[in-house]
Input
Amino acid sequence: MHRAELIATCDAAGQEISGGWVAIRNGRVAAVGAAGEPVPNAAEVIDASGCLVTPGLVNTHHHLFQNLTRAFAPAVNRTLFGWLQRLYPVWAGIDTEASYLSTRVGLVELALGGVTTTSDHLYIAPRGAGDLWTAQVEAARAVGVRLHATRGSMTLSTADDGLAPPELVQDDEEVLADCERLVRLHHDPDPHAMVQMALAPCAPFNVRPELMRASAELAERLDVRLHTHLAEDPDDDAYCRARFGRSPVEHFEDLGWAGPRSWVAHCVHPSGPEVGRLGAAGVGVAHCPSSNMILGGGGICPVLDLRMAGSPVGLGCDGSSSNDAASLWLEARTALLLGRQRGGPTGMSARDVLDLATRGGAACLGRAGVVGELSPGSAGDLVVWDQRGPLFAGAHSDPVEAWLRCGPSPARHTVVAGRVLVREGRSTDPGLPDALAGHARVARRLQAMS
Ligand code: ZN
Output
């Protein structure tokens, strides 16, 4: 049970309550009350006086394995394709231990930034590396963050005019069989699930069109979601036009992906008509502002245009090798700044961004109404943001605007299904010191291979 100074965007109507409380029972929100309403008895009460309470944030795009090559000196200052080509041989050393440790540490980092549900796009499958996705699921169960894992894939190597070395790609049949195996093993269709799976061929420039089409058909049959990168960068656009004779969005549409089952990362370079078609089809978009700016591909995702056209839009940290900080709060602030840079002083408000980071992300993952809001019956996932002390001194009129205009703001408390994962700004994971030591050892091993 949490008493708060202000609870924001409690429900689909974006309701805000001053001085209210949230009660969580059996992992779900049991009740939300206003100031003065009788507070239920609770086993634990967290005092959130002077704080903002929001629904848990939803991260819609990430590559947790990349935290093993964070700020990797030989790959910085390159284009998207140059950066990938430099890192692929390093990532070829990833095994189940590396997958477990990168996920374990990465999920703690996300929780410290207020994330309670995250997607992850793991598309590296070195030969003989073992089941990297099951290792991720084990790490997620240990940490307690909701994981929307995706079975990523690459099937085009340098031998086929792609970018990845041959030892990192698989054939279509191998990928599809493993997708089905992982969905049957780990996917829990309950909207309150701690683990769900989706299918995620990496991008048009490293996956055969036949696999994209077959993945869409398999996702339909298994009733899981579809994810990929789309229209991220000028290189990506030029590759699609040269190889397939059409833009990335046209390619995506021709392969049967343009529907509400799909959410895509980036979408920086769609044309105006393409924005309209993606919106009409209900395709979700993960806006990853820091990664887009670090890779310097030019352009800004047309967030509000996509939303107006009908696309759910969420926020994503993207991988920790192209946005080396994995704080969704930081992405939210960056989305605010970039939205205003693009659209002027009315182009984006903190409330718009809070909606992207919560309900928008939940809609991208097919979990609208369950995660990303605080209403009776929704997931018991919330974040307490401290607004006391020097960083917020003088901010008394609007805690939601202050949340993103002031800061930096790590989460004071992060709660998932009623379990406190971050308390007073620190992870409650007792295994974290050992995980960090193992992570350092594995990261050094990988980076020494370069
Ligand atoms: Zn990505």
Observations:
- The pocket of zinc ion is lined by residues 61, 63, 121, 229, 265, 318-319 (CB under 6 Å).
